[in-house]
Amino acid sequence: MGDPSGIGPEIVVKALVADRPRRCVVIGCADVIRASTERFAPNLKVSVLSAIEDATGQPDRVEVLDIGDMGSFRCGEVSAASGRAAFEAIRDGIAYARSGQAAGLVTAPIHKEALAAAGIAYPGHTEILADLVDAHRVVTWHLIVRLRRFSMGWALNLRSHVSPVSN
Q: Going residue by residue through the chain (167 aa), what tens digit of pLDDT does each one get?
């Protein structure tokens, strides 16, 4: 689902409309996904699943494994509740993939400040995934239409790139 207060739910719903996978389950807050579906894909229904095995892959549905009541989310507002919800959805997705109940994991955008507000010690997706799957070497891969980009190091802010050059 990504950050429930951010663009993640919108991206998830629009992606499901644009290129429907055979069977895809969204892990996150069902109410947030329902609101995004009503706004961006009103022809889709939201089905809340009790278990991942209950997924049917029906093309007229967004099937959601609800992470439960995490509080209220306001679009565009950084909050601890949003950070916690995003983290729990990623953590649950990793668990399903590691157990073989899911064939893979796709994540939506999260907000690093929301993670920090929730007291989550990871700065982003890469670190969460690396730690929870016990990976010692990780690569972030972005696929944008026909462009493939591999990030082979830690992301640095612009100032840290400019400072060494200007000295």
A: 999 999 999 999 998 887 766 788 999 999 999 999 999 999 999 999 999 999 998 888 899 999 876 667 778 788 999 999 999 999 999 999 999 999 888 889 999 999 999 999 988 888 898 888 888 777 776 666 666 554 544 444 445 545 444 44
Residue type, 73: F
* DSSP structure string for the chain: ---TTTTHHHHHHHHHHHS--SS-EEEE-HHHHHHHHHHH-TT-EEEEESSGGG----TTEEEEEE--------TT---HHHHHHHHHHHHHHHHHHHHTSSS--------HHHHHHTT----SHHHHHHHHTT-SS--EEEEETTEEEEE-S----HHHHHHHHH-
Measure CA 60 to chain center.
22
Q: Which residues is 144 bridged to in the sheet?
A: 147
